Amino acid sequence: MRIARFSIDGNVAFGVVEGDAATDGGPFLDIIKGHPFAEFERSGQRVPLDKVRLLPPVLPNKVIGIGRNYPEHAKELGNEVPDVPVTFFKPSTSVTGPGDPIAYPSFSQEVHHEAELAVVIGRMCREVPRERAHEVVLGYTCANDVTARDVQRREPQWARAKGFDTSCPLGPWVETDVDPGDLAIMCTVNGEQRQLGRTSEMVRSVEDLIVHITEAMTLLPGDVILTGTPAGVGPLNVGDEVAVTIEGIGTLTNKVIKRG
């Protein structure tokens, strides 16, 4: 099931994405009653997907990022794979949606894309045992962990490098029925392939990351875990269009603009 968050005529709602161009005249949203973090009903009210504005699929209380979780990415930046996961936060104000602009920060001259699988938490949890980790997941979406690489190199805390406004595009929706263990993940810039990997290359799995994070903190419905990026990260410039595509989920596209 693909669950999208969207706005139409000034109203915000969730809906299940259904249909395709071949058989239904184009995809549409079946608006749901309530929200996807509890039992919900479909209203039967349908809206064409191309008539709405897709929003970030969730509004997380916190986004927890994982660094150096793909060996080749760690290597390309001159780092070793760490003994324990490298964790960092991106604030809620960094989150932006599909089609929304990425505003190039004025304090950086080297901004990079990082295509990532994002885990969306479905219920409040802490100290989750590995065998039950799947029970706390609502689903998965595409993410771009946009990073001011020059700032990351000179500041030991990554708060500014990875937490600036619009540095966390998410979308286009949450896919609830996909196995995250071996999915193709790709990033293109202006149609040119930059990153191509598989989630099976991750040092630590989704289950491992949920266990590690919830040992320390409570996760809330809508919180997001960024699982790391494969090799091939590189620069973004004003005017670029960057797209993250994950097998079985969809494509997240954003354009880079000058920060106003």
UniProtKB/TrEMBL annotation:
**Highest taxon of source:** Bacteria
Q: Enumerate the UniProt keywords alphabetically.
A: Metal-binding
Fumarylacetoacetase-like C-terminal domain residues:
62-256
Extract one GO BP annotation from the record: carboxylic acid metabolic process
Which Pfam families does the protein's record reference?
Answer: FAA_hydrolase, Rv2993c-like_N
| Keyword Magnesium part of the UniProt annotation | no
Please list which residues make up the signal peptide.
Answer: none
Please state every residue range assigned to the domain named Rv2993c-like N-terminal: 1-57
Molecular function terms from GO: acetylpyruvate hydrolase activity; isomerase activity; metal ion binding
InterPro entries (alphabetical): Fumarylacetoacetase-like_C, Fumarylacetoacetase_C_sf, Rv2993c-like_N
Return the PANTHER family for the record.
ACYLPYRUVASE, ACYLPYRUVASE FAHD1, MITOCHONDRIAL
Recorded protein name is: 2-keto-4-pentenoate hydratase/2-oxohepta-3-ene-1,7-dioic acid hydratase in catechol pathway
Give the species: Streptomyces zagrosensis
Q: What is the lineage of its organism?
A: Bacteria, Bacillati, Actinomycetota, Actinomycetes, Kitasatosporales
